Structures are given as structure tokens and as C-alpha cells.
Amino acid sequence: MLRTLVLAVDLGGFARAARRVGRTQSAVSLQMRRLEAGAGQSLFTRAGRSFALTTAGEQVLGYARRLLAINDEAVAAVRGTRLACPAES
């Protein structure tokens, strides 16, 4: 959900984010409603097909970017290490 949020903001819409993550626009909208439910408040203000982040949405976006950076760093680190087999020890 956090990656989808960041993509929606960076790409300028839920439909564009949906295409990028290989989901329907309605699936992305549902993810964002679940994210709002978890936050306990609105993260977006909507006007037709466009949206803007609320103050809470801006806060969540900041945390999302940080969490995703840490996640991507961890994945890169693990992929870069070779696990030793017990026979090699």
C-alpha cells in the first residue's frame, strides 16, 4: 500500500499508479481507503479524478518514502550477499 501511495503521488493519480503496479484503478482506490482506515483519518482530498494530500497524508507519505528506502536497501543488501552453505564452513 505504501509503495502504491508513493507512486500515486509521484505519477499524479491512482489510475497511473494502477498501471504501474499492474492493478485496476478500483483496486488501488481500495488500497488507499484501507490505508486511510488504518490511519484513522482522511489522507486525501478528492475533486473528481484528481486528489491532493491532507496534512496527515503528507505525514504518511514522508514515512512511506523512508520505510520504502529502508526496505529497498535491505533487499539490495541481502541480494548482494552470498549465503554460505554448511558444507563450505
How are the secondary structure elements laid out?
Layout: H1 2-11, H2 14-21, H3 25-39, E1 44-47, E2 50-53, H4 55-80
Antiparallel strand pairs: 1-2
Q: In CATH's first tier, which class applies? A: Mainly Alpha
The overall pLDDT average reads 90
Q: Please bin the fraction of helical residues.
A: 55-70%
CATH homologous superfamily classification: Winged helix-like DNA-binding domain superfamily/Winged helix DNA-binding domain
Principal-axes geometry comes out as globular
Going by helix content, strand content and strand pairing, the class is mainly alpha
How many runs of DSSP E, i.e. beta strands?
A: 2
How many domain units? 1
Distance between the termini: 40 Å
Strand proportion, as a percent range, falls in 5-15%
Q: Could you please say which CATH topology applies here?
A: Arc Repressor Mutant, subunit A
Parts with pLDDT < 50 across at least 5 consecutive residues:
none
Q: Would you identify the CATH architecture?
A: Orthogonal Bundle
Count of discrete alpha- or pi-helical segments spanning 4 or more residues: 4
Largest sheet: 2 strands, antiparallel
H and E order: HHHEEH
